[in-house]
Amino acid sequence: MGRKLIIDTDPGVDDAFAIALAALSDDVELLGVTTVFGNVSLPRTTSNALRLLALCGRADVPVAAGADRPLVYPQQSRATHIHGPDGLSGRSSVLPEPARQARRAGAVSLMVELLERADEPVTIAAIGPLTNVALLLAAHPRVRDRISRIVIMGGGLDHGNTTAMAEFNVWSDPEAARRVLVEEDVPCVLVPLDLTLRCAVDSAWLAKLAAAGPVGAALTALTPDYLASYRRVLGFEGMAMHDAVAVAEAIRPGILRTKSFPIEIDCTSGPGRGATLVDRRSEPARAQGEGPVHAGVADVALDTDLDGLRNFVLGRISRS
Questions:
Q1: Are 237 and 203 in contact (CB under 8 A)?
Q2: Positive or negative, the Cα torsion across 296, 106, 111, 172?
Q3: Pick the catalytic residue: 83, 140, 159, 242?
Q4: Phi, psi of 278 (to 5 degrees)
């Protein structure tokens, strides 16, 4: 079998591309999909995940719903202004009806079951707020050894997209992000906004995907609201596929170039709340200066072959 993978997600247009990328990759054993609040409400993210798996012909993949709110403070707002009222540009109803229901036991229970049953360590691609993953690690510390690494789409090195400093997934639950990235001893790869924006695709790429087959056509049909938002951000007709970049790294380790850095998450109530503080000073400079006392360490994705990454995602989804 292929690389064993669990996706924790809040679909979301870019999540839709990420789920399809994993679901249609022959070298991936997609063990399960768990859902979390985020871009839209938990019932909607769960329905979207089920419909997207049905689109990909993957009714065999179990789905379970997880946290419907952050660990400590309520989520201040969702991303319907970017992803549309249902998370998929208002077009989720054009996707197939779910071929199965979500597991009643819930996301954390499903992750524990899948991790304990696997005959080798499993990669978790966490592409929404990190609440489910934080709860998993806090309540079931014995499964840490069953996780090969957690590939996280989140954070920003130089800026945010929800506030000046905070990226949406981390901002939605900073306490959960800190639990996973700073407090836990599990290998993490952080795929930040700075890189995922550089991996944006244009209208020509989307046209190739739409022409490749029914899955590609359906995915591109979900993008109008998302495209309208990113037209203002990017300055051209295109979109960021943030979560698909992280899932590409989960599938093919090394497709992104990473470097290890100390990391902290701002959990204060001030204007920096949700900021991802990555200490990019050289080791000698860090040794001479001041730094966070309890900082964790993560591999941060800094660069990639942009065209190679885009072709990888296009080729995998086009296989349908």
A1: yes
A2: negative
A3: 242
A4: -105, 120
Q: What share of the chain is helix, strand, coil (3-state, %, to 5)?
A: 45, 20, 40
Assess contact for 231 and 237: CB atoms under 8 A. Answer: yes
Residues 102-123, mean pLDDT to the nearest whole number: 97
Structure tokens at 56: 């990909």
Tally of residues, the chain: 320
Q: Could you tell me if residue 127 is left (phi over 0), alpha (psi between -120 and 50 degrees) or otherwise beta?
A: alpha
Task: In whole angstroms, give the CA distance from residue 187 to residue 208.
Answer: 36
- 177 CB contacts (<8 Å, ≥6 apart)? 129, 130, 134, 154, 155, 169, 170, 265, 274, 276
Q: How far, CA to CA in Å, does 235 sit from each of 2, 156, 232?
A: 39, 20, 6
Give the residue among 268, 289, 292 at the shortest CA–CA distance from 278: 292
For residue 242, indicate whether it is catalytic: yes
Helix or strand holding residue 83 (H, E) = helix 80-83
Question: For 43-82, how does the pLDDT look when each residue is reduced to its tens digit (9 = 90+)?
Answer: 999 999 999 999 999 999 999 999 999 999 988 888 888 9
Instruction: Tell me the C-alpha distance between 206 and 245, whole Å.
Output: 16
Contacts of 197 (CB under 8 A, 6+ apart): 233, 234, 240, 242
Measured CA to CA, the distance from residue 28 to residue 264 in angstroms comes to: 31
Mean pLDDT of 133-151: 98
